[in-house]
User: Fold these one by one.
Assistant:
Number 1:
Amino acid sequence: MIENPTRASYDIIATDYAEYLANELDDRPVDRAMLAAFAEIAGAGGRVADVGCGPGRVTTLLHDLGLDAYGMDLSPGMLAVARKTYPHLLFEEGTMSALDVVDGELAGIVAWYSIIHIAPDQRPAVFAELHRALAPGAPLLLAFQVGDEALRVSEALGHEVALDFQRLRPERIADELTAAGFAMYATLVRERIGNDKVQQAVVLARRGV
Ligand SMILES: C[S@@+](CC[C@H](N)C(=O)[O-])C[C@H]1O[C@@H](n2cnc3c(N)ncnc32)[C@H](O)[C@@H]1O
């Protein structure tokens, strides 16, 4: 079997990645405001998935906001770190291309800097899958770097990796989400903070009812 380079890369950097980003959201109040708005719309009525959860820093924030949140990720290394750091939370291995939930099961989905690893031609199928998994009216929250570039990173946090990711245009994502059956709710584009290289976007949409 050919190893998935995204999974292998995140396995290698998992521990250092968790440390590097542990407190990153502390000085990003508008990012946290979007997560809080998402939590308020999702409510406490059902399970919420943090897809591409990595070390679980957003999963725990969603839990602290009162949600029944669990994390899901491609990388066993990331999941091991998440489970060790947050033993009270559930973390599952999987892919956002095929979620292990029945139609309409989820009260909300967050994909925080994880759709960046989906190839553009695969995004419509992934958005269709997220739509399938959500209950009518349930919110979807996406975070990503703003731009047009497809990038390949060969070194991260002192490790050799092979990570392909996309910078994305919020207008394009809005069009794709609308085509998948979502109603756009809010789009945040904020300026760079700390180590950000470009503007950052957070997009909030809801599954149509
Ligand atoms: C940039 S990290 C973000 C992690 C976390 N959301 C955070 O903000 O700390 C991207 C994560 O997405 C995961 N990922 C990439 N493609 C995925 C897929 N198709 N399904 C699930 N997770 C995926 C990676 O393993 C990695 O943990």
Number 2:
Amino acid sequence: MQMIPFETPAAFADGQARGNPGFAVYVHWPFCLAKCPYCDFNSHVRASAIDEDRYVAAFRTELSHRAGETKGRKVRSIFFGGGTPSLMRPDTVQRIIDAVAKNWAIEPDVEITLEANPTSVEAGRFRGYRAAGVNRLSIGVQALHDADLKALGRRHSVAEAIAAVKTAQSIFPRTSFDLIYARPGQTEWAWRAELAEAIKMAGEHLSLYQLTIEPDTIFERLHSAGKLVTPDEDLSRALFDATQEITEAHGLPAYEVSNHARPGAESRHNLVYWRCGEYVGVGPGAHGRVGIGAARRAQATEKHPEMWLAQVESEGQGLIENVPLTPEEQSDEFLLMGLRLREGVDVARYQALSGKTLRRHQIDELAADGFISEDAFGRLRVTPMGTPLLDTIVADLAA
Ligand SMILES: C[S@@+](CC[C@H](N)C(=O)[O-])C[C@H]1O[C@@H](n2cnc3c(N)ncnc32)[C@H](O)[C@@H]1O
Ligand code: SF4
């Protein structure tokens, strides 16, 4: 992979990017207690207990396979995502962290995040995760409104979610929670009030996602049958603007389209993705981007949990995709990911990756319309006004 260092003196979200966008390990736990009707993540419900020891063995196998391809890297972040990783036993998490540490050097201030659902049973495991080495918990609160939690198919109440956040804050040095807004029937004023409540209980980080109607979900079927009505474009825009205004005013500005943090408390894991660093993904349906030889490769594993397990046990790894990215694919990805960040992208790095220059008149036009800005160090940023049009802006720039 062409590791072109960041060299501009512009301010970075976490002060870490200069010289190295980092290396991270993503671990996917693909099981949930029930499928939420809006969710298209690789999550599966099983009637019988999961054989966690067998999964640990497979994770170990897959980690050592990826380590063979990425010798000499130092791990900046480990992320347990799902699915519902808070269904894992703490000793399962511990053994996977140990396996990561056996395979790579670890940065001294490594971030180890686990995604948790806020039922009381799961909160009961939080201490165990902390003892296993997890130092950041990300909790799926989703709404501070019981009727809406029910409509989202969630299996916890607002009271349980608040209790889980408080428990997490007393155990982990770093916490975050997720909310979904632009929900059916939500007014701007209701969201403003809910967000104000959320900010009162928030620590250093919040993820605030606009509800997306994903293909092949129950919400999509209801939506196309006219039985689930989501906010129109104007209301969505007003909700987004209110989100920026309120979080900014309370010291939790957006550092990415949907992610807000106190300065220095950004998720290092996601920064590795958005800055086009390297990451390996293990577990069913995990993605990776690694530099092997001269190429940056896109990797993805088998999605179906039992098929992934069988493949890892027979072949020593679960990859079903492992392809070099063309310079054009790499540079498109660099723009698409990097322009999500408030720190923006380094135009020189784009040009080095793609071998082509961004068209000056295109930059000037988008800047004149107020959608992007460019600083004296050659960093390009999408403005808050341009953020809802991010995909179109990237397509314009990359054309
Ligand atoms: C991997 S998911 C879920 C993690 C965890 N299992 C949970 O449900 O809390 C990560 C986050 O994506 C967000 N999300 C999932 N589907 C979404 C959708 N259709 N629209 C907007 N946000 C979504 C939710 O906020 C969720 O917490
Ligand atoms: S939202 Fe979370 S709990 Fe619900 S199905 Fe998706 S991954 Fe599972």
Number 3:
Amino acid sequence: MNGTPVQVRGDHPHLLSALREELGITSPKDGCSPTGQCGCCTVHIDGKPVVSCQQPLAKVAGRSVLTLEGVDAGERQRYASAFAACGGLQCGFCIPGIVMRAKAQVDKKGADLERSDMERHLGAHLCRCTGYVKVLDAIECVAKGTECAPTQPGGIGSSGVRYEAEELALGDRGYVDDLRVPGMLHAGLRLTDHARADIVRIDTSRALAAPGVTAVFTAADIPGELRVGIIYKDWPILIPEGGRTSYAGDVLAIVVAETRQQARAAAEMVDVEYIVHPPITDPEVAVASASSKDIAVWGTDSNVLSVSEYRRGDVESALASSAHVVRETFQTQRIEHAFLEPESTLAVPDTERGTMHVYSGGQGIWDDRNDIAAVLGVERDRVTVELITNGGAFGGKEDMSNQAQTALAAWLLQRPVKCTLSREESFRIHAKRHPIRMEYEAGCDTEGRLTALRVRAIGDSGAYASVGMKVLERMAGHASGPYRLPAVDVRAVAARTNNPVCGAFRGFGANQAQFAMEGVMDRLAARVGLSGWEIRKRNVIHPGEIWGPGQRMDDGCLGAEACLDRIKPAYDAAVAAGKAVGLGLGLKNSGLGNGFREWTGAVVRFNSHDNTVEVRHGWTEMGQGINTVALQVAVEELGIEPSRIRVIIDTTRELGIGQTTGSRGTLMGAGAVKSACEAARAGGCQLDVDYLGEYIVDWTQKLGTVENPTIHSTFGYAAQMVVMDRDTADIDRVVAVHDVGRAVNPVLCEGQIEGSVHMGLGYALTEDFPHDPSTGFPTAAKLRDLGIIRPKDMPEVEVVLVEAPQPNAPYGIKGVGEIGLVPTAGAVAAALHELDGEWRTVLPMRPRGGSDD
Ligand code: FES
Ligand code: FES
């Protein structure tokens, strides 16, 4: 092992387990063990790269294993510098494995290593953040020996390296599952066998008698609240005897043992007696059910989670008098986030003080703190939740997954407990992207100017509320895309079913709506005889005009037309070259809006003991770069060295307002840190003083309260163009022109967009997370079942940043987290139509057959 002979126990299921759990070697990450599908655990055995979760110990005995910990210091630095300098990582979870794969190729081929070769070798890896462009740039740098020294970030607008980039690249910056504390136990979860079943009896005796087991807990052991939830408290952390399950991810018992293997094995020995009911899995059937016996979700009284609707103008007569009318029904699919780091929580009680410290990778640690305290039945100030920068989230870590169960076990035992989900458990438990059925009816005049739009939509929200009602509200609000429309009539229903829970996922309903709206725009363009670009130009929203739900747009919306104008030369050139070209235009709000008062705080503190400057903010770093943004604002405002800054996120200060969601972290986080820096400057930057700053958005209005409500404070805009080769039917190129208001860090900003385009192409073409309607259970259990696009199948992506500043926003920032995949599916559908004349209505548009594709 890294040059030293070692002996390990023989009971590990694979080499990765021995490395991480016994030898404390944590640079190889566990993204999917034992399935061998993500590449995060790649190490070298006798010089060859292999995924260590697929290596039985017997096969490794007597051979030479190398991990990043054992690589020569100079070489480590070369990789770390290259990935940092090129922006070749975001959450970083996949990178140590990729570095080991790259090292094998660079060792073999040196400067002769071709980019296409490396793309092929990366087929054994998944990265959900970067879109691979900058990953390949970094590997090329090392292979060619190009000078690529990372530069520290300066103030706003500089492209310095990501906060902690080098440590992340080498796997040295720990994630929750990398943490170990003395006396730590491991928890495993017993999940339900049926999506809708009465729980008659839970028998823990066999599990309790299993080797290494310390305790088994059920709902009967909860001292406080049974149910948690971001908006509605409807999600039971454990289903009790006498209760009923509502989806495949429901938890029945927590088993705590000395090792993870023991805990997981014993969890399967918890015996459960059920009365099984047929699951309600069709959202239309669910909302049509009137009888109380047809309620899908235990503890609720309706299968209608929410109805979002608004009307402006006389849609009926506008459609009747339109020169052209298009009617189409679109259906989008359920999607799994597939962040590379499965959910993990470590809870450490302090018996003397009667408190508990929880390490979480969640997207809303103040919400987590409040719900955990409620479950334990204690005051909030006895629970601290500390964010450990996570390995990707994309909305999928907004709801608690295992935080409450882990905290409960630790609290009851008064010992540290860690629980890490397997990939299959992660699939079953956390919320997905909503499948939505959308009926669109839109008209235009003879010039192609939109006259009216009617939309009826139903989204399958699965069992528990999560933020499903807000997703359908956002889908409804964004139904008309970034266009001017005199008459609109929209109704969107969120249905409760026994399918996987659906909630937040990058784009939050805007993707679904704008796949449909862009499809409608292209159909109308064809009727009128306009190009895709021209019809968008004729209808794009301008300042002072009324958008969708009635909002009068401000100068921020200049970005929409700016993106269209900027993409025109490339669009014209591709059309002239005979390519099949599709264009999409989109917008995505930043912030919660809808009359919600959004507050966030930040603290700046000059520490006397070590000369560091603490910057505390309220947002979850999940690869998007909010910690780097916070650092850059502090550098900009205080003129201090970036190396002095430590960014901290925990609940020891009240800085949070809920979830890191809605593309608002950069906008609001920058505003709050700027305000804290101003307070520090005004106060003379005294040592060991908390300087508090805040950023508030309290000027949005709820739909229906005034004639033209300001639903959202800010929007980001993008025009994306997909270029297809008519002979091969492959996508050659994607051009993504994005208005971000102000690019705080252009390289990081580009990386966000490249990763979004990768995700957006998967959404458009291949990704799906199907379920069995007879059971409500997902039929995908492995990462390769999801249809995520591999590096060799990614087209060239060209990102162009446009800066049309948002009035009243700090530095003009708009937010870029979600908009990157909003126009993509529409652009792909248009390109495919150019190719073969077929209009597409269903996602994904090129579904793949299964694991081997
Ligand atoms: S953890 Fe081994 S390949 Fe994913
Ligand atoms: S950087 Fe690759 S998964 Fe996040």
Number 4:
Amino acid sequence: MHRNILIILILSINIHSNTLMEATSLSKDLYQEIILDGNYKDTIDRPDKFLDFDYGTRVATPEQITSALLAWSKQTDRLKFVEYARTHENRPLHAVFISTPENLNNLDQIQEKVTKLSDARTTNDRTAKTIIDELPAIAWMAYSIHGNETSGADAALGIIYHLIASKDKDVEDMLGEMIVIIDPLMNPDGRARFAKNLEQYRGTAPNYDDQSLIHTGDWPYGRTNHYYFDLNRDWVYLTQPETQGRVKLINKWRPQILVDAHEMGPQDTFMTGPAREPINKNVDYDLVKWGNVFAQDQGNEFDRRNWRFYTGEWHEDLYPGYSFYVQFRGTLGILYEQSRMAEDGVRRPEGTIQSYKESVHHQFISTLVNLKTLQKISKDMYKDYWDGRKYNVSNNSKYSNRSYVILPTKNKGRLNVLANKLIAQDIELYQNDKPINVANVIKQNGLVENEYIIPAGSMIIPNKQPEAPTIAAILEFDAEIDDAVLIEEKQKRIKSGSSIMYDTTAFNFTMMFGLPAVTVPQNLSKNLTKWKPSEEVLDVKKDSVIWAVDGMDDRSVAFAARLLEQDIQVRIIDKESSLSGQTLSRGSVAVLPMDNPKASDLYVTVKSVASDLNLSVASLDSGFGPEELPDWGGRHFRLLKKPQIAILSHSGFSSYDVGVTWWSLDHHLGIRHSQLNSSFTAYGDLRRYNTIILPSGNPDMNDYAKKMLIDWVKQGGTLISNNSSTRSIISSDDIGSVKNLNTTFEETESYNIDLMREIYSLDDIVDITDANINKINLDITYPWESSDISYDSKQLEMRDKWQSLLMPSGSIVAARTDSDHWLTFGSEDIVPVLYGNNPILMTDGNSEAVLRIGELIPNEDIQTNRTINWSQIPAGYDMNVRMSGLVWPEASQRIANSAYLTREKIGKGQIIMFAGEPNFRAAARGTNRLFLNAVIYGPGLGTDMLVTP
Ligand SMILES: [Zn+2]
């Protein structure tokens, strides 16, 4: 009897689990076409062998794709694959080379020829012609960079099989003439996350509702990688291992085409074809011509099969960090955008259901058709490629009389990171050991200097190089945009507030990095040596009284953070100093054995942390600073406090900003911190943290949770907020004094007086005779009285409404810094900041504006104060706002003099607010430094120090 019950139980469990877990997709029934319709060899396993479903009907996991590659590499000599990187979650990334065995045995020689054809300085026309005659076509086909856009990788699995297993003559011929490199799955971590969502939300019946969780997945969604980075914005910033490994291999192979297969909204159809304007002007127009040939062939095939598609429309190509970065190198980028079917299929407005299998089939056929087109026109494309390579290094090109110069900096850590990104794009870097006199130099703020001396030790990048277009795209201060595009953009903005710009319009590397640079209108080539990073000096002497690292170097923050993490007492020297003959920048980090009597072998710890960071350390044997300079017992040696950090996260927050904040703490600092579900603010124990970060977002926090957070600040916490979270703090009446511009029009005069105090306090011209007169002087003009115009609140409100239609779309504007403030350690006087539709921060006397928008430029010709909206530019100055990208003059007026970064003491703690996202894409290194200062130095320098009795 017991036995019978057991059997019944087992049976019922089986029945039950079958009902729940059986694949519910009816893909194969909805769509009857056969994807793999060739004649295939029996000796090679079909894709189904590695899947637990029929090929193309559901989403293959990264592990299933990898196991297929491993098996196939043993079953055929038409395939070789390499692992080019590992993801953060340790999944392999593969490039699969498919061709004839003869070609595959000659890969090294073929690759050498490609390299030769790319440098017209050392290869002549005759050699080039021979190389072109011999070279096979080379295609790079890459899929599913966004992990929840799954159909591409499933198509790739079928394509690989089709090419290696086919007995058909056209496939054999194609492989004879071509190397096909397939990157089947560009973002395995994101795909794994989405595949898990599909599994979690699968029910007993197919679900065609594209709003349901099985179609959307959960926060942070499958699009991004482990740290929630959009890998299709990282191709030139190169911050993630997936991109770093991939770009290295693509740049080595210089394929003729690069297909990047995506998905878009479920109710859409299929898009391909060349981009529409704005197109980056550094792209060779020949590529657009070839792009149309590929699109035409692809369109014909879609027509034949009765599949709908379109070309161009919303696809633009100004931002250089898409996969289309290859176009600057002479490779044609081809985009696929297939409507997203998840795996059950989607019901469309006309009532039909489009199946997942059909979406895979679209990607599969597109790939085959593109390969056939390339087979047909490869030689002609090589000829154009060669012409382009010659143009890049010729004296007649638009690149021939231009060089970019990055000025010497003590921020060696940051400069080295930038250098490595340029080198990864095959850009040649030089340096000058002696100053060079040049004329008509353009500075980052747009001003031209007729006579200029390039200081010794600058990094010099002549534009005339084989990779000239890439250099221009990422180092020119402004990307050129056609007038027609600007007109269309402005009309759209004013009509509906929408934009035709798909991504940021500014991306200049030196500005993103906050490193001063100039453009020189000549080809600098004389008296230069190859650039090399300066050497670090790790001089940690056992019996020194102070070990110090220079505060200009970003790595100094990590140095402090890692020592604090080990409970070492660390100080900051908050003023420039000179100790034992060493000059140390403001914000240098000092470790004193005196402060750490119990730390045995302190110098060993200091040395090991510095050597992990490859950072110079100075050993000082005296704490005496000459004259006014800081001495070690004085108030400028300020004690830090160990930061205990939480990042609020999850639903409601921007996953990008959460991810890059998390990445920034892990990769710049490498110290412990917690990512908290923001609901914990209501019932968790916040006393564990002294620093809480609110990434950008609109989190679901009730009033009680907000109150808990503010109470925690008053008790000594440091709260740091970005962008939308800043907007929500300043719109609460009861948190701090910083306000959003549009709530201040009644009190503008007092804001202007506070601003004038700030500016006039920096004035170093005082009329001494005036100061010594005994009789009262009745002829004094006050700052606010000398302006010609002032606007009342009604006028300000109207101006603001109009100006707000024209806010920048990811542009770079100048911010002037408070150069005495601890938040600006390691920053130049002007920090370029990426600016979008940010909250516009207004500070009064209760809060500090650490960065304000607008660079004040002395101009003696201007005799009176001039009014812009609520504020003024004092006599004697001009103001520059725009640095790079699209900033309408109305927007410049609106944001001028507003704060980008504020800090306010609240009780024993403080709130630090950024108007934008300071860590944007891990590429905004200039503003990232301000953020790191806030996180690591905030608790020690900005809150009341707790001394336990
Ligand atoms: Zn995509």
